[in-house]
């Protein structure tokens, strides 16, 4: 484990921010591109995970354990969010026989 | 150092495959691989607790939930309807603009300090447990209530309403 952690010694903090920004943008693109509600949900998970990685990188950079505790809370929140969201998707499928989000545009008003 | 760049490349590659795969099952499997690369990132940062939690909660629980829901909803009969070409182009353009804006605004900061692990047992369970149960005890207890309410809500939403229809 010691030799593994020595491999990141020279990575600048900016590169972690770039990686997280790119993966966050890929998640945004997934939300905009797809019409399948489950894949939109997965893109939201991707965005959450990129933020988790950034929080961990900053936590290690500052030497502060509070960032990693916050990531732990985000993971608990994501689990709750996924459970409720997938239940809603199952309910929508039962009512409309499809999980295409364009079917849901009657929810506008 | 090159390990980080290789794993970062794999993360971006698999996350692009997640949003571009035609079959939703393949998409979920690519998401598993993406989360595995995130676990490797956590190990490289010596956040061992988060690596294990990411492995168990995300790859074990959440993605199995996704997979079960997808198999409950039988999507095999018809393919996903595709969006118009202009909408796709504008979606990629919008996401790309966001990425370029974030990266270029950070580029102007110049070269930052390297991430150095000052305290080698920062991300270990012993250290994190002390912080979690002293400083963050109340949020921890509230999150258990949140999980309970999410569980009750999910069960309530996903059950069929036969009894209520019978009473009406």
Please give a structural write-up.
With 109 residues, chain A is mostly helical. Chain A has a single domain (8-101), classed as Helix Hairpins, CATH 1.10.287.3510. Chain A has helices spanning 2-6, 13-33, 37-62, 66-96. The longest helix of chain A has 31 residues, at 66-96. Chain A is elongated. The relative contact order of chain A is 0.11. Chain B is mainly alpha-helical and 168 residues long. Chain B is 75% helix and 0% strand. Chain B has seven helices and no strands. Chain B is globular, with a radius of gyration of 21 Å. The mean pLDDT of chain B is 85. Chains A and B meet through helix 1, helix 2, helix 3 and helix 4 of A and helix 1, helix 2, helix 3, helix 4 and helix 5 of B.
Radius of gyration of chain B: 21 Å
CATH level-3 fold name of the domain at 1-79 in chain B: Four Helix Bundle (Hemerythrin (Met), subunit A)
CATH superfamily assignment of the domain at 1-79 in chain B? NADH-ubiquinone/plastoquinone oxidoreductase chain 6, subunit NuoJ
Strand content of chain B: under 5%
- Write down the CATH class of chain A: Mainly Alpha
Of all chain pairs, the largest interface belongs to: A-B, 76 and 89 residues
- Return the structural class of chain B: mainly alpha
CATH architecture of the domain at 1-79 in chain B: Up-down Bundle
Rg estimate of chain A, integer Å = 18 Å
Task: Estimate nothing, just give the exact number of structural domains of chain A.
Answer: 1
Broad shape of chain A = elongated
How many DSSP-defined strands of chain A?
0
The percent of residues in helical segments of chain B reads over 70%
Largest sheet of chain B: none
The overall pLDDT average of chain A reads 85
Can you identify the CATH class of the domain at 1-79 in chain B? Mainly Alpha
Oligomer: heterodimer
């Amino acid at each position: 484990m010691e030799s593994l952690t020595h491999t990141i010694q020279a990575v600048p903090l900016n590169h972690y921010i770039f990686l997280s920004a790119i993966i966050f943008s890929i998640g945004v693109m997934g939300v905009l591109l797809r019409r399948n509600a489950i894949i939109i949900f997965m893109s939201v998970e991707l965005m959450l995970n990129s933020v988790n990685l950034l929080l961990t990188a900053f936590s290690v950079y500052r030497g502060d354990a509070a960032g990693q505790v916050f990531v732990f809370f985000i993971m608990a929140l994501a689990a709750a969010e996924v459970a409720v969201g997938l239940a809603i998707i199952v309910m929508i499928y039962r009512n409309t026989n499809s999980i295409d989000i364009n079917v849901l545009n009657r929810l506008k008003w | 150092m090159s390990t980080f760049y290789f794993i970062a490349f794999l993360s971006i590659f698999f996350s692009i495959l997640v949003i571009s795969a035609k079959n939703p099952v393949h998409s979920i499997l690519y998401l598993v691989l993406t989360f595995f690369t995130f676990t490797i990132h956590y190990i490289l940062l010596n956040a061992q607790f988060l690596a294990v939690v990411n492995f168990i909660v995300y790859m074990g629980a959440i993605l199995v939930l996704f997979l079960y829901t997808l198999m409950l909803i039988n999507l095999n009969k018809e393919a996903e309807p595709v969006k118009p070409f202009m909408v796709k182009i504008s979606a990629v353009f919008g996401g790309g603009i966001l990425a370029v804006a974030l990266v270029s605004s950070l580029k102007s900061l110049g070269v930052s300090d390297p991430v150095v692990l000052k305290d080698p047992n920062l991300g270990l369970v012993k250290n994190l447990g002390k912080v979690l149960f002293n400083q963050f005890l109340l949020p921890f207890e509230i999150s258990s209530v949140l999980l309970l309410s999410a569980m009750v809500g999910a069960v309530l939403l996903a059950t069929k309403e036969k009894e209520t229809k019978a009473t009406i």
